[in-house]
Amino acid sequence: MVIIRTTKLHKDYESNGIVVRAIRGIDMTVEQGEFSAIAGPSGSGKTTLLNIIGGLDSPTAGSVFVGGEDLRNLSARELSLMRLRSIGFIFQAYNLIPVLSAMENVEYILLLQGMGKGERRERSAKVLESVGLKNEMYRLPKELSGGQQQRVAVARAIVSEPHIVLADEPTANLDQKTGAALLDMMHRLNKDLGITFLFSTHDPMVMERSERLIHLVDGMVAADEKKKAAAKKTSGKKEAVQKAVKGKNRR
Amino acid sequence: MKMLFLLSWRNLWRNKRRSVVVISSIAIGIFAMMLSMGVMNGFNIQMVENTISTSLGHVAVHARGFQDNMKLEYRFTPGPEIYRAIKERKDIRAYTPRLKVQGMIQSSETSRGVLIVGIDPAQEKTVSKMYEYTSRENGSAFLESPDSGGILISRAMADTLNVLAGDKVVLMIQDSKNNIIGTGFLVTGIFQTPVASLDKYIVFVGLKKLQAVTAVGEGISEINIITDDKDRVESVARFLAAANGDPSLEILTWKEMAPNLVSAIKLFDSMMVIFFMIIFITVIFSVANTLIMAIMERFHEIGVMKCIGTSPWRIFVLIIFEAVNLGAVGLMAGVSAGAGLIWLLSINGIDFSFYMESMRIWGSGSVIYPRIRLYDISMAAMVVFTTTLTAALYPAVKAARIKPLDALHYV
């Protein structure tokens, strides 16, 4: 089942009077439960594509459908709700809220969703435990290593059980061992929860471990390599994802 | 909201030095506001109380026209109805009749124009503080009876006339038949009130003696009334006006008798408002500046918060909370320091004797006892919160409008 679809997607930027064509007519689909990576050299449009899919940026032309919903039809508030309820973000620089503990950072998302304190605490603790941070829950980001901070970021991204996690170069600031452990963890979450992971990366390790690799060159898909059939591994509970995403975004 | 509040509280202390500077500026503003308010309250209250306790009283019954022209012809002989009405009101603490005549006081050296007030010494003690203001030194004492031949004069007057207690002075008075009468009085007491203007032109003699000298029989110029509570004045005046069957009499409150005093208080209050506005305009800019700096520093972070689904409204509330926290901490510090100092100063007062003459002109006395009311603290709180919220509005809107993508690219 298709969870992300782009049609004739274009994105132009104007910089110092020069038009930069960051995305040039990308047509692609991502199935529910995929563990995919968008690879390519710097300036190839990876992050721009990810931002457009996440509703952070709007295309110059073309459409993006997330869970069957055309993002062009969503208001700023609806896009914000979609990001809150259906998409988890992982950033290269972790981007945790520095004054909140690991637990509070994770809890923050559930709080925005209006979840009660007890359930919020329980679920956040469980997710942090699943990413191996049982003993670091009450530490502030500055008291955690880079790898641990990125694990908190992953926990924050998945705690609300989103349909999609968009990860922008998640291993770029980590050493290889920590990066590999993080990827293992995300792969496990993909398998266990059926969450769709879409990375932008130029880390060979991420490219190697992802089940599908979309190569971008100059804003165009140069190659689309499917290593495994990710869609088949999705859990049963995600079958009505499209319907759910639509419902979530409108609430 | 709880998490946003927690977040705003922790954000406040991310840059401790900057927050402390802003909190201090708010606290100093509040402190200065409370101190000046306290001194001004004390000044106003003392000015009013002193004027009331020396001459005005709370309410007075006069013959119509007397207030504008204090001549002997505007006298009246009170009937039983007015005394019955006065006794009926339980909130009237005391009253006394007075006869007021303009005249001249003369010593062997010089003479001065004065207002001669005939009093019943026993009743006067219950209404005014003239008994307390009369010196007990060097043979000075209060009048003993309404028909005594003594006179009370102020220290200033005694110096002008160059007389002491025990000396004789002559009062030149026009009696009810328009004859100029000269009568000798023995200076029995020297007084000094906190109201310099009063000391310069007023003298007290026995009521019956003055009635006899002026040949007015039982005639008086006023019945001066003191109520239990200054807030009861209007009600008492209305009651007496309704109970009074004599249309030639009028009932006046202290505010009606001393409109200049009321205007002076209003003027001081207006000056205070301008002073506070200056203080809080400064606070507005320092709070706004701090919040804008805090937002610029956290531009990226706010962008991330928006990326992960924080709505613009929540970002707006977060910044407002930060301003409220700044204001609340500053307010608490300022109120504690201000109220503490005012409490300390209210014990012994602030001695403005180096400034005394100008203070006494206003009738406040030279030692001011600062006073602060709950109302003033509430006003300070309201002003701080209004100010900080106003100051936070622009930064909060700016933060709420941050575009997540722009913020993500911002380092």
What does the model show?
The complex is a heterodimer of chains A (251) and B (411). Chain A is an alpha/beta fold and 251 residues long. Chain A is built from eight helices and ten strands. Chain A has a six-stranded mixed β-sheet. In chain A, strands 2-1-4-5 form a four-stranded antiparallel β-sheet. In chain A, helix 2 packs across helix 8, helix 3 runs parallel beside helix 5 and helix 5 packs parallel to helix 6. Chain A is globular, with a radius of gyration of 17 Å. Chain B has 16 helices and eleven strands. Chain B has helices at residues 2-12, 16-56, 80-88, 121-127, 130-133, 155-161, 196-201, 207-214, 233-243, 254-257, 259-297, 299-307, 312-348, 356-362, 374-400, 404-409; strands at residues 59-63, 92-106, 111-119, 150-154, 168-174, 180-191, 202-206, 222-227, 249-253, 350-351, 367-368. Chain B has a six-stranded mixed β-barrel. In chain B, strands 10-11 form a two-stranded antiparallel sheet. In chain B, strand 2 and strand 3 (111-119) form a beta hairpin. In chain B, helix 1 crosses helix 13 (312-348), helix 2 (16-56) crosses helix 13 (312-348) and helix 11 packs parallel to helix 15 (374-400). The chains are: A alpha/beta (251), B alpha+beta (411). Chain A binds chain B through residues 51, 54, 56-57, 76-77, 80-81, 83-85, 89, 91, 95, 97-100, 104, 107-109, 111-112, 156, and chain B through 3, 6-7, 10-11, 14, 300-301, 304-312, 314, 404-405, 408.
